[in-house]
UniProtKB/TrEMBL annotation, chain A:
Residues 34-63 are annotated as: Disordered. It comes from the Eukaryota. One of its GO terms (biological process) is proteolysis involved in protein catabolic process. Its EC number is 3.4.25.1. InterPro entries: Ntn_hydrolases_N, Pept_T1A_subB, Proteasome_bsu_C, Proteasome_bsu_CS, Proteasome_sua/b, Proteasome_suB-type. This is proteasome endopeptidase complex. GO terms for molecular function: threonine-type endopeptidase activity. Transmembrane segments: none annotated. Residues 316-352 form the Proteasome beta subunit C-terminal domain. Its main location: nucleus. It is found in: Nucleus. It is an enzyme of class 3 (hydrolase). One of its GO terms (cellular component) is proteasome core complex.
Automatic annotation (TrEMBL), chain B:
It comes from Polypterus senegalus. InterPro entries: Ntn_hydrolases_N, Pept_T1A_subB, Proteasome_sua/b, Proteasome_suB-type. The proteasome is a multicatalytic proteinase complex which is characterized by its ability to cleave peptides with Arg, Phe, Tyr, Leu, and Glu adjacent to the leaving group at neutral or slightly basic pH. The proteasome has an ATP-dependent proteolytic activity. This subunit is involved in antigen processing to generate class I binding peptides. Its EC number is 3.4.25.1. Keywords: Cytoplasm, Hydrolase, Immunity, Nucleus, Protease, Proteasome, Threonine protease, Zymogen. PROSITE patterns: PROTEASOME_BETA_2. It comes from the Eukaryota. Pfam families: Proteasome. This is Proteasome subunit beta type-9. Signal peptide: none annotated. It is found in: Nucleus. It catalyses: Cleavage of peptide bonds with very broad specificity.
């Protein structure tokens, strides 16, 4: 026999018990044990629903004297097997294909009714990076597309990995977001473990090994740049897990337009302003010549001692200001007569629900 | 035809497995890089275990084992070459998970264009400079004909005295008939 103590809220017993009992515990004002159980007018402590009466299981409740914070602890005693408190089944390694059948069913149901399942949002992007004298400049546009429609006019594609490393992401928006967050988290733990500032090569290794493991199904194409104790580094990482270490890289649907600018004007050991201008121009080439890229230019300048996260750096596509207005001035329509009628409303029911807003 | 573009025109396809063993990558970049990284790691441990430089055959065997085990899933061919005390200079091909020791080996999409050239130009016991010319000529011819090959030539020479890496830039490539 196991007991389960729940405070206010919903408690769900796992399916192993063969009895799915959804219990709602309501908060009561401070009362003693006896009062709470004997008072007929009190709101029900527990409501049992969808329990199987024939299963022979009993759910008994008993109230316990409330604590000073005016809530009531409820002790629930359920006879029979009970595996664990968690709702989800513990996954045991490998991929879980449990939802595939359900998804296939949903898809057929939806298409029968003429609806379409939402598709993964891609960023149709231009991202690029360049190594200059003191560090790295990363650039990105800010348009996110869903098919042929712009889903987000100002999304942030330059993601934080560590204080000295940032990463631009092209491809599936969710994949780039989650992948960079995962590696950022792991890198922080790694950095605490080693006691050192993380290196760009480490982030590169972690990203490439993870993407290779998923054989290209994670659609994340990344431009990783940062400055560490060994100097400034720039990597481009592809969804299948291959990486290139280069002085200038571009990715995304606008990569060819941006690369054209780089191949023309890149020089070794540029100054910061020159590098920023070059990246800005490369992203602008992508924005104006590629349908999947648009809106503004975001830049991130990473040097040994500081980060400049310039969002936006260049508002290349500011919305125009209307030169005229079709609004009519107040008083254009003359008022002829005015009459006010009071409506007779009576209060039928008033329910007051106290909330603990402390 | 799908959108194709050159994403890196200066990729170094020679990967170091150890000080005296290098491998040449071809096929899927991701697969090839992953295999090279794994074998780099395993060879490191192996050479620490054995207390010295590894045999080229050992490195080639490691590459072969991975290539054979994941034959269905991977598209990559690594040519392993190096120098060791027992057999001197060696070249091993690992295509499809097979291990063959060869006097010379060619691989990749551009290799089909130069089988005739390498078969006719190769001679036993060439000098180092002859070998350099042989390799740069062969690669140059392939780069001229194959659309997926081009850029620069990376060359690594491994001898008992050590390893030296060389890059031949576009304007220094040997010139052939090219209308």
């Amino acid at each position: 026999m196991e007991t389960l103590i729940m405070r206010q809220g919903f408690g769900v017993l796992p399916a192993q018990t063969e009895t799915l009992a959804v219990l709602q515990v309501k908060r009561l004002p401070l009362r003693s044990y006896n009062e709470a159980s004997r008072d007929p007018k009190s709101t029900p402590l527990l409501r049992r629903c969808s329990t199987d009466p024939g299963s022979g299981r009993v759910a008994r409740t008993s109230g316990i004297a409330g604590s000073s914070d005016a809530s009531v602890h409820v002790k629930l005693i359920v006879r029979g097997k009970m595996a664990s408190l968690s709702v989800c089944q513990q996954s045991c390694g490998g991929f879980s294909f449990e939802n595939c059948k359900r998804n296939a069913l949903l898809e057929s149901e939806f298409s029968k009714q003429g609806h379409y399942l939402p598709s993964a949002r891609k960023t149709g992007t231009t991202i690029c990076g360049v190594v200059y004298k003191d560090g790295v400049v990363l650039g990105a546009d800010t348009r996110a597309t869903e098919g042929m429609v712009v889903a987000d006019k100002n999304c942030a594609k330059i993601h934080y990995i560590s204080p000295n490393i940032y990463c631009c992401g092209a491809g599936t928006a969710a994949d780039t977001e989650m992948t960079t967050q995962l590696i950022s988290s792991n890198l922080e733990l790694h950095s605490l473990s080693t006691g050192r500032l993380p290196r760009v090569a480490t982030a590169n290794r972690m990203l490439k090994q993870m993407l290779f493991r998923y054989q290209g199904y994670i659609g994340a194409a990344l431009v990783l740049g940062g400055v560490d104790c060994t100097g400034p580094h720039l990597y481009s990482i592809y969804p299948h897990g291959s990486t290139d270490k280069l002085p200038y890289v571009t990715m995304g649907s606008g990569s060819l337009a941006a690369m054209a600018v780089f191949e023309d004007r890149y020089k070794e050991d540029m100054e910061e302003e020159e590098a920023k201008q070059l990246v800005r121009d490369a992203i602008a080439a992508g924005i104006f010549n590629d349908l999947g890229s648009g809106s503004n230019v975001d830049l991130c300048v990473i040097t040994k001692n500081k980060i400049d996260y310039l969002r936006p750096h260049d508002l290349a596509n500011k919305k125009g200001v209307r030169s005229g207005s079709y609004k009519y001035k107040r008083g254009t329509t003359g008022v002829v007569t005015k009459s006010v009628t009071q409506l007779d409303l009576e209060v039928i029911d008033e329910v007051v629900q106290t909330m603990d807003t402390s | 035809m799908g959108k194709q573009s050159v994403v890196n025109r200066v990729m170094n396809k020679l990967s170091r497995l150890h000080d005296n063993v290098f491998c040449a990558l071809s096929g899927s970049a991701a697969d090839a890089q992953a295999v090279a990284d794994i074998v780099d790691y395993q060879l490191d441990l192996h050479s620490i275990d054995m207390g010295g430089l590894p045999l080229v055959k050992a490195a080639a065997n490691m590459v072969k084992d991975i290539s054979y085990k994941y034959k269905e899933e991977m598209v990559a061919h690594l040519i392993v070459a190096g120098w060791d005390k027992s057999k001197g200079g060696q070249v091993y091909g690992t295509l499809g998970g097979m291990l063959t020791r060869q006097p010379f080996a060619v691989g990749g999409s551009g290799s089909t264009y130069i089988y005739g050239y390498v078969d006719s130009a190769y001679k036993k016991n060439m000098t180092k400079d002859d070998c350099h010319k042989f390799v740069s000529n062969a690669l140059s011819l392939a780069m001229n004909r194959d659309g997926s090959s081009g850029g620069v030539i990376y060359m690594v020479t491994i001898t008992d005295k050590g390893t030296e890496e060389k890059v031949i830039l576009g304007n220094e490539l040997p010139q052939f008939f090219d209308d």
